[in-house]
Amino acid sequence: MKGLLLKEIFVMFKNNKLSIIIIPIFTLFGIFNKQFMFVMLIPVLLSMLTLGNMTYDELSRWNSFAQCMPLERKSIVSSKYITMVLMALIGSVVVSAVHFIQSMIYNTVDARSTLLMALASFALALVVPCLSIPLNFKFGTTNGRIFYLIITGVICGVVPAMVMSDSKKFTAKAMKLFSNFPVFIVLSIVVIVSVIVISWLSSIRIYERKEL
After folding, report:
1. What distance, in Å, lies between the first and last C-alpha atoms of the chain?
2. DSSP labels, the chain
3. pTM here?
4. Taking Cα atoms as reference points, which of 84, 68, 67 lies closest to residue 210?
5. By the 8 A CB rule, do 51 and 132 touch?
């Protein structure tokens, strides 16, 4: 597993130098220009580097080569998810630090707000990879991207329609949940962990049955 993780990190930093250079630029821009949206993109950019690794694996036929080595398919899949979560966590730490520094500069320090930003950025960073990784293992990175866009389009069309159909009721429930901050945080963590586990187990099942 250690070797797989080192391989993921090495490939990530070797082939994504531009994305890594962008991160400090976004950080500084967020601190001094009050454009926090750019900072929230940092965890997303970092976690999506895992998808780039999968593309390079496919192009280099790494998956076929890995079958000649004493590696379990479960370990190969797990290395992707560990890297993804690690990158998302690093991004969330950056978001928390930037938010805290920004709030210190403008004298608006709020621990709750900082924690919420960290959690929101972490969850946001996991949406695309958790959906895309199983699809990439199943259909390949090119076809997986197409299926991801279709599913995302359906979700973006259905969910807003459901919310708008009874927006007042939905808003009232959301405000009630958010008002109980500890419960909101715990539920958010449970949902995030559940999404990761479901995606991980799905990927393992798909990859173990796949012919390479």
Report:
1. 20
2. -HHHHHHHHHHHHHH-HHHHHHHHHHHHHHHHH--HHHHHHHHHHHHHHHHHHHHHHHHTTHHHHHTTSS--HHHHHHHHHHHHHHHHHHHHHHHHHHHHHHHHHTT---HHHHHHHHHHHHHHHHHHHHHHHHHHHHH-HHHHHHHHHHHHHHHHHHHHHHHHHTHHHHHHHHHHHHHSHHHHHHHHHHHHHHHHHHHHHHHHHHHHH---
3. 0.79
4. 67
5. yes
Cα 194 to chain centroid, rounded: 14
Backbone angles phi, psi at 39, to 5 degrees: -65, -40
* Cα 92 versus chain centre, distance: 10
Tokens 């709750």 sit on residue? 112
Identity (one letter) of the amino acid at 147? F
Rounded Cα distance between 26 and 28, Å, is 6
What digits encode the pLDDT tens for the residues 125-181? 888 888 888 888 888 877 777 776 776 666 555 555 554 555 555 555 555 655 666
pLDDT of residue 163: 47
